[in-house]
Amino acid sequence: MLKTIALLFAAAIAITFTVLMSMMARSDPPSLLSGGTPDDEQRQWAQTAWRYVQNNTQPGSGLVNGKEQYPVTSLWNIGDTLIALTAARRLDIISQAEFDARLSTLLTTLASLPLTPAGTPGSLYNAADGSLSRQQSAATKAQDLARLLAGMRMVIGYFPEYRTYLERAAMRWNFCSVVDKEGLPLDGQQQSNQWRTQAVVDTEYSDYSRAAFALWGFRPSEQPLPFKTAILSGLPIDYTTRDPRLSGSPAGVESTPYILTGIELGWTMPEGLSSASTRMENRAKLIYQVQEMRWQKDKILTARAQYSRSAAPWEVYDSIFANGYPWNTLADGNRYMPELSLLSTRAIFGLWALWDTPFTDALMQLGRLHRDTEHGWFEGRYEDSGGYNRTYTLTTNTVVLEAMLYKHTAGPLIKPVHHGGYLDARMQDVFNWPRHCLPPERNPQVIKKGGLNGD
After folding, report:
1. Pairing of strands 186-191, 194-199
2. How sure is the predictor about 11, in pLDDT bands with cuts at 50, 70 and 90?
């Protein structure tokens, strides 16, 4: 009798186990944002950021307005678009079919993107039709092109089936006037019918730009860039040696580039320059610490970043340090406007993603409210009054999406891309090189090593 009961009990357990395993096998894989109540809220955050992309995508070109309902986009914004698309798909905010449809339209635009006289992508485009914007003379900014290259590499890392299309687009571009022989990124502009270039030596975006170019095999310069150091709350903050009186633009430090190098690259310089990687990480930690200390000492929640407005002044450089002064808020022409200092949404999400501390928790208590479910995440709230800056931009909503993806994957978003792609195959034919100063054209040893990254 006991043996019979035991056999029946064992059989029941076996049947139950089999049924449970069958149910688990049939269930869909969980979303990266599935789970309890906190994840439900964070899923809403990601969906709100995606709402901006939905509202501002131009159906004919696949490009996304850089600012809400304003049909102009920059190279930086095209990189934003690729990153936002990838993050939305990885977070299961959109289906693979929608991802493919949106990306395919954008790839078609990239394949025929009008170029400057130097053969480089231009700084600004009409988002509706992809034509070069007439708002300024032809120009290419290294940090904007770097953002686009980073976005292209992010797509390839997660979705290698699109690699050929993206590498074919990049092969159209002439990098001779974008990266010099020493590996320094160059800004370029058409002046008096000549293309004039200038090396980018600013401390904040130069590392991001060099890292993005290195993702495509460009050997980053080993030459240390000149910098100055300011002491804020006892912490050394490095900033550029450029004279703002001559350039007309602020010379300072804000959070965005340090956040992006952390979220996307883990503060690691491709091509193995360990000294550059250490410098990037150290500077980022100091940028975090000095804002945390201001909160601890002065009781001012601080998350500084450059941002946009819907009225003049249209762009504000809201710094940690700029033009010789701490916590300097500057409008066009380096005008001092402290009343426009902002608790930046993009900076809040970036700091929160990278550091899990009481300070970032305090930031998010307010930052999580900087949204409208019908429009997206707006730029932030003013430090002095607490009033909202209800301007919606692609960059802020992209940073929210990539911060969410980083938080739920716990690692850098841009994956290593190994050899064997379309560009590698094309560069094997040395007699038909495009002569665009691509990495294998600069260093034929790259081909022998087997790839863009020399891996």
Report:
1. antiparallel
2. very low
